[in-house]
Amino acid sequence: SSNLGAMAVEAEEFESALRYLEKALENEPNLAGAHYNLGITFQELGRLDEAEASYTKAIALKPDFAEAYSTLGNTHKELGRLDEAEASYNQAIALKPDYADALYNRSLLLFDKAEYESSLRDAEACILKKARVLPLVSLYALGRIDEIYQRIEVQSKVDGEDISIAAFAAFISEVEKKPTEYNFCPHPIDFVHVSNLSSHVSESGAYVAGVIEELNKIETIWEPSGKSTVGGFQSLVSVNLFESPSGKIAELKSIIITELKAYYLRFQNEPCSYIQRFPSKNILRGWNVILKHEGHQNAHIHPDGWLSGVIYLKVVPSLGKDEGAIEFSLNGRNYYDVNSTKLTLQPEAGDIVFFPSSLHHRTIPFTTYADRIIVSFDLMPETAKHQAARLT
Question: What is the average per-residue pLDDT within 345-373?
């Protein structure tokens, strides 16, 4: 049961993991690894107090359990107990000085505490790909602009397709009125594209109702841990709507692929690598989000994607205040300029909106007691080296 639980955690099937791990611990209560995996499961399910208890038990059974200290730090951070979070990360790093996850999370925490030099130190010690942008963000907080441009130039040669660096490079080039060497997508707002399901299906209202009916059978979770959804449900991370779809969702996938061809043709002459190295394989990862009253999504990018998209199945009235709108911006969570370019779109039912995965976007909260239902997706980069890509 313990091994099955670990495998279920790995597969992000957390309801199954919970059953396996609780059964394993009934039979053998002193399995530190099972308590640790149970902590991960509780955390993913939003049961933070139980996650904390599980990690604490794992550490009691195995005092040198660096991974459990690190994930306990994440739980403390989610609970808003930042000093305890820092102490947990410190313990993890003391046990395992090159522990990348703990260094990454401590860097973010120190940034939040405005300890930018210390945040920079941890970011530079961290080997995770997702940490490559962190030194740039710390340097911006420290006002070391020339150094940022030098580092971006180096990064452009190491990996010119890092979505997080692309997002920051677009921001800094606009703020400083000076382009960087990062050519993924220097002006991402120019690549927002809007269409509608009505140009693909004759009875779009009935079609949308059918898609919603199929989505009602998909398991969702309220405010999933580590995601941008607030005041709403999101399909489980283990579920990819477009992996082997049927019915109306399969039809939706083919509509997206058709629209992607039109998108590529529209922008095909643009010189940035976002277009010139556009994925030739239609690898889509899809999920759905149902926002409720006061629901919204915090500003975020999709660091694993290439192009991202939203299909609006049910929208809410704007009430003259852009309620329920999608807002695009170059501002990130940890870097912000009041004059940064913004674009606000008030979607209509059936709208299809495509944009680069490096473009920050958020949903403006709404006060209407109604559901705002979307399907989101990422067009994933090809794992193999990109060819001079063409959609066929």
Answer: 95
